Amino acid sequence: MTLSNFEIVSDVTKEYFCVDERPWVVGYSGGKDSSLVIKILLTSLSGLNHPKEVNIFYCDTGVEIPVLRDHIIESLKLIQAEGLSLGINIKTTCIKPPLKDHYFVKVIGRGYPTPTNKFRWCTDKLRINPVQQAIKEIVGEEETIVVLGTRYNESNERDKILKRNETDNKYFFKQTGHKNTILFSPIRDFSTDDVWESLLTKNNITSINASYIADIYRQISGECPIIRLPDSTPCSKGRFGCWTCTVVRQDKATSNLIKNGFRSLEPLLEFRSWILSIRDDTNHRCTVRRNGVRGLGPFRLKSREIILNKLLETEKKSGFTLISEEEIETIYKLWEEDKASPKYQEDPAIFI
Ligand code: SF4
């Protein structure tokens, strides 16, 4: 009998998991590839009763598309329960970036312009650093295996990076800048069709709801990574990510979700389009940067207040909690700091 790709990599995963004591950490985004990796992991470690802990991290940036976030948080609980019932020493954790790095603290508090391809300050702060920090807190400086759903044949750029970081073992990759992290990608040779086939036909693991994921992917594609591949640009498309993402000109993910019935997301899409429309407007942006150089600087204080009010309106209209009290308090403090700082400069705006 020929083994399927899924069975082959499940055997490989079991073998490498048991071979030594190095801790295993899994980056889970809720997307199809990381969901498949979880499925492989639970399948391969099932019944082993191995004492080694498997830590699964999901990073909640605070600006995840609410309906997707809720689904992922729910699936984290299911994954942990199913893993434990299969005899796996598993722990799922939803991690968050530090308050000072929250999206709205940066944009409304400090006046950061919303991210674009040229000024993409968000991915490291919101996704990659919190995961690296969580890994460090759990395993310290120990060499760690980080399991990822990275694959060849996704793009030429991705292939080049993977090639450059190959090791003697085809499933393991180096991570530049992180000597103690080894990336393990069991699905490195899976095509997109292989991923869907394994996700949808292997029904042994119930905590991964493959048909829900397939439904979402019919509407959305692309996801913002939570572990940086060595040397790669941090975010590929930024669509299965933050609802506030302005790295892409059009938010197809939210638009398509709305078209498919998620009408409560409409106010979020409107807010995102509006904030994008004022991003480069000198009526809303200081004309001196924080370093004193002339050029588009932070959002003006008045504009930050306008943005906050607009966000609170959006919250009311949509029914979703979009900003916390703690964030609002921090934002007020940052406004006071700017008001008191002799270095903070605002030319008069023309319209506001
Ligand atoms: S989804 Fe967009 S806004 Fe969010 S971290 Fe990625 S690039 Fe930044």
TrEMBL record:
Residues 25-205 form the Phosphoadenosine phosphosulphate reductase domain. InterPro entries: PAPS_reduct_dom, Rossmann-like_a/b/a_fold, Sulfate_adenylyltrnsfr_sub2. This is Phosphoadenosine phosphosulfate reductase family protein. It comes from Parendozoicomonas callyspongiae. The lineage of its organism: Bacteria, Pseudomonadati, Pseudomonadota, Gammaproteobacteria, Oceanospirillales.
